[in-house]
Specification:
about 800 residues, mainly beta, five-stranded antiparallel sheet, about 10% helix, about 45% strand
């Protein structure tokens, strides 16, 4: 089955002479005589063969010297003394060949021309059927032994290459932290460019020490993981501690030789793994191993490592990549299902993270010649919209845990160079995602640089809708920065952004108000802004503010960024809510004013108000609504400051003072001519001035008056009252001119009509049925509508 016929065509001694200079040195103190063999390895056509391991064996078959043939096929061996020696050649892809014994005298130098002929050793003819052997001896299973000799040839060539001082190399060494719960994703990574060429990618103990103490040991309260270097793998101690067998791969181009500790080493930590060879060339490609006989938590962290090898242009061999994975354990206290008090919490050891040390060889040179260069590792891909599939330009790409960054071109393409293979979290920030303070993260396994990635990301509008609960209205989002001399300006954290607009109601305009605070990166989002509406945006914090911005909301998501400026001369802002002192429900249409400045604002449906551009100083703030006791508060304001105040209003029994109102609504006569309701004019009121307002209203058809304690009275409709299934009292909506003072909400205090004197009434209109109510009063008019028009006069003193 095996074909290996390589021989040496004679051992041709070109000349045998003493070198007088060397002999002279040998007679001097401190120098010893040396016996050397210089030679060249060629093929039958006299072509030089580089990368051949040449061993010098003594009479006991012990290796006393070794060398690797260079590009010219030359080698140089030095013996320790006179004696009988043989030359043994190890060439990857061929069976080892040993020459006939030759006598080498003391202080003698000879030259040898070794011609290698014969057929290559064909791994593709080897069947994976050999039994496991527990030592690599010539009398062991033939196939396994033959493959192991190919492994030894590659390892020895690698070790001899690293010992050559003529070559220099550069490689990237790295330290990683891997998340064991996220498919091995890189959490953090540091790397540096290092020079050197070595067969010891990591610090390894001797083969004898590893055999004695194991590969995973506890030192100084820390767990230390040792990995075998080339010298350990080539040692007789390593071979005697392991069993070997051939194994197949899913890749038919590979064949493996698996190794595992011998049965008697089951009580000590060790390694098991597979060395994979190319079936066609017999070249060793990779050694993958894992640690054995270690505690269970460490096994869950995939403790192990791998080494990759490559042949250089001059026939020499190098370790091109290596890594070792070391789980870090942490003891945690977790709840227990036990019944006793002591057993309710138990200690559990888990893998907290996996640390990886490794390296990637980048370049090997000798003088001006490049002997080996790693193909450039570049992560290429394209960022596309998840809905349209179009490329997204100006997108920021970052590999989390590293310093690697890129930006897409006009077609959405990107390239990240010098990316080490591994599992990464890729953070993607498109312009629209940046506008809403979001980014998109995908998991990506970078293993094949030739495979470009296509990453689909949602739009900023999709993210905003998801955050706002898929509202039907518009969304305003953006970023707020602080202009304080830094370049670029830093983010303004916990700044307030307010959107304000006018809402048209039957009684006039009512303020619309929404606000949001910026997050740690200065981003904000305001949900539920009306579409096709022009809004005013205000941004500020306690020390700076921005110019107000008028923005027309013409699409689902609009973006507005602000820069806060401390130097701008802007006033303070008063914000808050007005609530009922009875049930803490919000009040709409309450006036919040600073009379001395002639500044005021009204609350919205949620009782919120905003009064801006207040000059610095102490000002009296008045909160008032007809039918309620006014609230006053003296507040000190500073420039740029935003002050929050919540006010509570309570009912008054009688309206002692009434603000000056506008003239009688011109629509009153139009409603009266239409004749759908009941109407009293001033002439009618003068006949009943001595009566209470509730008594006057009781004269109107369709009105019922419900009386409370004292003189309190409320208006209800008489519709359906005589039916046995009639509902409880149905209280009518009440307007004072255009101002709605009662809207019929269950949580709202009912309006006392006797809080208004008949002498203060200019006219009354009442609509018992929703079919009669004019459009301007139509909202929530199921129980009828009472409109009281007040006379204009100066307020009375208390």
């Amino acid at each position: 089955m095996l074909h290996a016929a390589i021989c040496c065509e004679g051992t041709l001694v070109m000349h045998a002479r003493r070198v007088l200079a060397i002999a002279g040195l040998a007679m001097m103190p401190g120098f010893a005589a040396a016996q050397t063999i210089r030679g060249v390895v060629v093929d039958p056509t006299s072509q030089s063969i580089p990368g051949v391991v040449v061993l010098l064996l003594d009479s006991a078959s012990a290796v006393v010297a070794r060398d690797l043939s260079d590009e010219r096929g030359a080698f140089f061996l030095t013996a320790v003394g006179a004696g009988s020696y043989r030359v043994r050649t190890l060439r990857i892809g061929f069976a080892p060949v040993t020459s006939a014994p030759a006598r080498l005298e003391l202080d003698e130098e000879t030259t040898q021309r070794v011609v290698l002929t014969g057929l290559p050793f064909r791994l593709d003819t080897v069947r994976v059927a050999a039994r496991s052997i527990c030592e690599t001896r010539p009398d062991s299973a033939a196939a396994t032994h033959a493959v192991w000799e190919q492994v030894r040839s590659a390892l020895m060539a690698t070790e001899l290459s690293a010992g050559s001082g003529a070559m220099s190399a550069r490689f990237v060494s790295y330290d990683r932290v891997i998340d064991p719960l996220r498919r091995g994703r890189v959490k953090s990574q540091m790397y540096q460019l290092t020079s050197g060429l070595t067969a010891r990618p990591w610090t390894s103990a001797s083969a004898e020490q590893l055999s004695r103490t194991g590969y995973v040991v506890e030192e100084m309260n820390a767990v230390v993981y040792y990995a075998p270097d080339v010298a350990v793998l080539l040692s007789e101690t390593f071979a005697s501690d392991h069993c070997f067998r051939l194994t197949a791969s899913r890749d038919p181009a590979l064949i493996g030789i698996a190794l595992e500790p011998t049965p008697e080493r089951s009580a000590i930590s060790g390694i098991e793994g597979t060395m994979w060879l190319d079936r066609r060339t017999s070249e060793l490609r990779e050694f993958v191993f894992r640690y054995t006989n270690i505690p269970y938590p460490q096994r869950t962290g995939d403790a192990g490592g791998d080494v990759a090898l490559a042949r250089m242009k001059n026939g020499a061999w190098v370790i091109s990549a290596w890594s070792i994975r070391m789980p870090v354990l942490r003891v945690r206290t977790v709840p227990s299902s036990g019944f006793s008090i002591r057993s309710r919490r138990a200690a559990e050891t888990r893998v907290d993270e996996v640390r990886v040390k490794g390296g990637e060889l980048a370049l090997v040179v000798r003088g001006p010649d490049t002997l080996w260069a790693r193909p450039p590792l570049a992560f290429d891909g394209r960022i596309v919209d998840s809905l349209t599939g179009r490329g997204i330009a100006a997108t920021q790409i970052a590999l989390r845990g590293t310093m690697l960054r890129a930006k897409t071109d006009a077609l959405g393409r990107f390239r990240l160079t010098d990316v080490l293979p591994g599992e990464y979290a890729v953070d993607v920030t498109t312009p629209s995602l940046h506008a809403v303070g979001a980014s998109h993260t995908v998991e990506h396994a970078f293993t094949d640089p030739a495979a470009a990635a296509t990453i689909r990301v949602p739009s900023g509008e999709q993210v905003a809708l998801a955050r706002c609960g898929n509202v039907a209205d518009g969304i305003v989002s953006g970023r707020v920065v602080l202009s304080d001399g830094s370049d670029p300006p830093r983010e303004a954290r916990d700044a307030r952004v307010v959107a304000q607009w006018d809402i048209e109601t039957p009684t006039g305009k009512r303020p619309g108000l929404k606000e949001a605070h910026t997050d740690a990166r200065g981003h904000y989002m305001i949900c539920g802004v009306p579409l096709e509406t022009t809004i005013q945006l205000f941004a500020s914090n306690d020390s700076a503010s921005a110019e107000p911005l008028a923005l027309h909301v013409n699409r689902r998501l609009v973006v507005a960024d602000f820069t806060l400026d401390r130097s701008a001369d802007r006033g303070a802002t008063l914000v808050g809510a007005v609530l009922s002192d009875v049930n803490a429900q919000p009040f709409a249409d309450v006036e919040v004013a600073i009379p001395a400045l002639d500044r005021n604002a009204f609350t919205n449906d949620q009782g919120q108000y905003r009064l801006a551009e207040i000059p610095a100083g102490t000002h009296l703030v008045v909160v008032r609504r007809i039918g309620y006791r006014a609230v006053t508060d003296s507040i000190s304001f500073a420039a740029h400051q935003t002050i929050e105040r919540t006010f509570e209003l309570g009912r008054v029994q009688l309206l002692d003072t009434i603000a000056v109102t506008a003239p009688l609504d011109r629509d009153f006569e139009a409603h009266r001519r239409l004749g759908l309701g009941r109407f009293y004019t001033r002439a009618d009121m003068e006949k009943m001035e001595q009566r209470t307002t509730s008594a006057v209203l009781a004269q109107m058809l369709g009105i019922r008056i419900q009386v409370g304690t004292g003189k309190i009275a409320w208006v209800t409709t008489s519709r359906g009252r005589d039916r046995p299934d009639s509902p409880p009292a149905c209280y009518s909506n009440v307007y004072l001119g255009r101002l709605q003072v009662y809207s019929g909400r269950p949580e709202e205090p009912r309006f006392d009509v006797n809080s208004i004197r008949t002498a203060d009434i200019e006219a009354i209109e009442y609509y018992a049925s929703p079919m009669q109510v004019p459009l301007k009063y139509a909202t929530g008019a199921e129980c009828g509508v009472l409109v009281i028009h007040l006379r204009g006069y100066e307020p009375k003193k208390p």
